[in-house]
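Dear colleague,

Thank you for sharing your sequence with our group. We've completed the structure prediction you requested, and as agreed, I am returning the results in plain text so they can be pasted directly into your records. Please verify that the sequence below matches your submission; if there's any discrepancy, let me know and we will rerun it promptly.
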Amino acid sequence: MNLDKISLDKEIILNATEEVIRRFGPEKANISDVAKSLKVSHAAIYRYYNGKTALWNAVTERWLTNIHVHSNDILKEDNTADIKLFHFLEDFVEAKRRSAINDPEMFANYIKLAQSSMEVIEKSKEDGINRIKEIIVQGIKEGIFFVEFPHQAAINVYLATSVFIHPNSFEDPNRNQNIESVVNLLIRGLKNPNK
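Please find the predicted structure tokens below.
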């Protein structure tokens, strides 16, 4: 299949890049491999991405967005903030583990890509913190949470649960129990007006 300038777009390039990364790994894969798989010149790829770093960052960013897509639905749930936060944090800590099980090649590649995509990782982290903050603010309005500084509270909640997104935690036989205990502790702390 020959793609011309009109039919080539960022989504097609990202799909091809993911396949190339799966096949060769992030270190060995390059823009020429992506171009070859699309049957275009590497210059055609440069019209959309200014080099390998930009393309690999875009793949990492899309991957992170896709694994956390369910959290958008959680934010729209018609629940009180404490229930919504529990569901959100449960999904947050399980998203990467699900990816490791369902798409192990891309997960392994993500770990390698993430080491060189700190700007993308920081953006994803800030997005997670902002989503938690949104739920905390809802809880303050509902009179469920009593927090003076919602953004700082969201950072603390993110940090307390981020231990569960590390691959070393995925095989822990007490993982689910530990997640539930930590999340319940955090929610109780947000509800405590005597901090």
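Summary note from our side: Residues 1-6 have pLDDT under 50 and may be disordered.

Kind regards,
the structure core
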